[in-house]
Structure prediction request, 296 residues.
Amino acid sequence: MAFTNPTGRLNYEPSSLGGPREDPKAGFRTFEAEESGEKLRVRPELFADHYSQARQFFVSQTEIEQKHIAKALIFELSKVEVPEIRSRMVGHLLNIERELAQSVAKGLGIAKLPPAAKAARQPLTDIEPSPSLSMLANPPGTFEGRKVGVLVTDGADAAVFAALCKAVKDEGAEVEVIGPDVGGVELSDGEHLAVQQTYEGGPSVLYDAVALIVADKWLAKLGKAPAVRDFIADAHAHAKVIGYVPSAGDLLTTGGVDELDEGHVPLAKAKDATAFVSRCKGPRIWSRETADDPHI
Prediction:
């Protein structure tokens, strides 16, 4: 047992650079005791069931979560270079849930399902779902601890920005300001606003929700900026809530938003900030994930 944590570059031996050394007198010594009887390594039979627990987890997820699991498996297995290994992994999935195996096989381009992997112990098939295992089935009902990325420009509506910040902070969440440069911007009331991220350095994947509070004169320039278009497109694709001043509607279109939904919240007036935060407390807008996914 170690009673101290060595400092410096090394905490092991032997080393040509020096470092700590074993102490034969004060170091660890095995307790001397006489033992008798058989020494066995025994595991319960259920240790041989490698699939039932995975099956219960999968069947307990919501439909969108099951879809995400299948997509994750497709992504990871698509990096495997040996086709036979990909096929064998699908064989393991058959012991968990046939529909999952079929979805993954389709996403990997496997036309014919392989045989199911040989199980050391036959997995259970009559497992009841456990809703407590699903994150989406147990939403937190709060936006506390989350972060909103607010994209701003010079001349941005100061009242809307202030109301948004207050509503977000009152909920226990944080605001991070994203601007054209780290020098900050000047809001519509003349106040200088510090900026934590630039458009190129603050992608929307860093935030749980985003808002576009921009001045009209900046719209054309922002629409031509790849980083801004990606900011919007990624937030929309990841089913996040997007708040926007009404004049930024065309900017949403430029970012690939073809149709508005309940997750696109207008911020026309300061009072609209409450509606934005209220929507952020709910689930993401999973309806954006199309039902005709070619791989699922």
